[in-house]
Amino acid sequence: MRASPATVGRERSLPLAACALVLTLLVGVLVGGLTPLLTPAAGAAEPDPALPITVLASDFEDGTTQGWAARGGETVAVDGTAARTGDHGLAVTDRTAGWEGPALRVDHILERGVAYTVSLWVRLAEGAGSDTARLSLERRVDGTTSYHTLGSVTVGPDAWVQLTGTHTPTVATEYSALYVETAAGTASFGIDDVLVTRIPVPPIQRDIPALRDALPEFPIGAAVSPADIHGERAELLARHHSSLTPGNALKWDATQPAEGVFRFTDADPILDFAAERGMAVRGHTLVWHEQTPAWVFTGADGEPMTPTPENKALLLERLETHIREVVGRYGDRIGTWDVVNEVIDENRPDGMRRSPWYEITGLDYIRTAFRVAHEVAPDARLVINDYNTNVPAKREALYELVALLLDEGVPVHGVGHQTHINIEWPSVAEAQAMLERFVPLGVDQEITELDVSVYTAPDQVFPEPPAERLEAQARQYRRMFDLFRSYSEHIASVTIWGLADDDTWLDGGPLDRKDAPLLFDERLRAKAAYWAIVDPGWEGGVGPSGECLVDHRVSDRWPGGFRAEVTVTNTAASRTLRGWTLGWTLDRGERVEHLWNGTLVHRGPRVTVGDASWNTVIPPRASVTLGYLGSRSGASGAGGPVEPTFFTLDDRACLLFTPEA
């Protein structure tokens, strides 16, 4: 992918009172009996988003610096002339360098995985010219210090200007400090009214089907940042996805910023998280023309490389060293690698992008990358990845390259289709042609970076995504996943490029616009796009199409087997079910051996159960309970049965009963 810098509705869920009633009834229900609920259920509105919580405030009104101190030889002191409000502010004088300014240590108050907003006011001293003030963070991890700009603003002597930034700590630090500096001059300045706040992330929805269970045809993944493996974001990630892709943590600038200096500060915790949660990992990416440090393309003479035999040999040597170090570090912990990324330019006669890689080595950098990666990780699936592969010219250029590499014996195992699309483009026919073209090559195909922008033109900007755009987005997601399911024998995985709309590469750009391209909104709530994918009966809106609640409970277990009960409740206010079919997906290796109070129509990973003669009718607000004996075989038998999360009643998705509801 390219590097880059509202709540849409309300879920139809059983309210708290109804959940409590269902639990009470489940305790005393007779197996196979019908039990009416005692009170009608009414829709419960979600609470408003939480207000920001202040974790730090510095107004200097007590006459002290409140922990702020000089970074160098400058003077930092409380002064009435530096006050924006009240009687005191913080004056910074006697500066001799732009980096000098006030700093405040914050590692003792910032939690990992929590997003913080920092705000302060700044003004240059009288007589100074304009400059750029920066809000920055100094961080020390494992003895290595790094510096990060959180926000910047143009500032002068005539008015106070607000300087803001955001920061999400993702690793344990020995030292973290906020500080204010200037980009050019050394003028004195004042700061006042510092505020650090956080917005609590609400608990994720645990009463909705998991994506990974609703999409058994292929592994479903998400691209992640280091912040995504903490708190509720981590729960959302692990609940819904069976694989993950580190979005930036494995790229060259992150893993080898200087020659011979390898760092895995961001990548290692992500890999550890995946191992703890039993998730597969896609490595992204070993070779790309972007996010590659300048030193990689600098010759032995210190000058930018030109196409010479000496530079070609040096560049390929650096490539091999990098791949052996990065791929070798993780071994079989990463099962798939995007080896080379975005090498096609359909506007060139030969279809190849004129990156420094190609200009200096021709196709040999691609051959070398695949060969070395295969030597280091012989069991890994190696993928060539690109965007806009639904465009005929791009698709054909990529096809010809892959065919050539395969003919040469280069170990290319898969083609990755990034699939950054929008609500109108591409059509199903165009996307199908993309998939169909590579079938004759016999390689795996993967959807590697899927998102669906709500924008269809570069000049569009919405304060928030219109409802009709989100509905169109949901329908585009549904069309694409219907297509992917029909090609599931050729598709090895599908990865969504991001976890939720609060963190997407599509935000920003020249118009500084906000997009909403993913399945979960900024508050980690399921959008219409999510329901369009998981609910077979979805016809629009946010929430399941069915009016049902399912409680699945494993009541007993033994080596290789278990006993479970399933209670399904018709939560409709007036609709009576006359004849019903309940379906759910078992974990791998599980099988229904014996069923009571229902008719087993189909067994396998997807279980389908019909009504029995004595429980064919389920009145409104009533429940029916069935039970089964299950077996577990192979390696899956060791850990005990897995509670399924995806149920349908008459081909409509159901909500899940959860004790905390």
Automatic annotation (TrEMBL):
Keywords carried by this UniProt record: Carbohydrate metabolism, Glycosidase, Hydrolase, Polysaccharide degradation, Repeat, Signal
One of the record's GO molecular function terms: polysaccharide binding
Domain (GH10) ranges: 205-536
UniProt catalytic activity: Endohydrolysis of (1->4)-beta-D-xylosidic linkages in xylans
Enzyme kind, highest EC tier: hydrolase
Domain spans labelled CBM2: 541-657
A GO BP annotation: xylan catabolic process
UniProt cross-references to PROSITE patterns, sorted A to Z: CBM2, GH10_2
Enzyme Commission (EC) number: 3.2.1.8
PANTHER family according to UniProt: ENDO-1,4-BETA-XYLANASE A (PTHR31490:SF90), GLYCOSYL HYDROLASE (PTHR31490)
Record-stated family: Belongs to the glycosyl hydrolase 10 (cellulase F) family.
Protein name: Beta-xylanase
Species whose genome carries this gene: Streptomyces calidiresistens
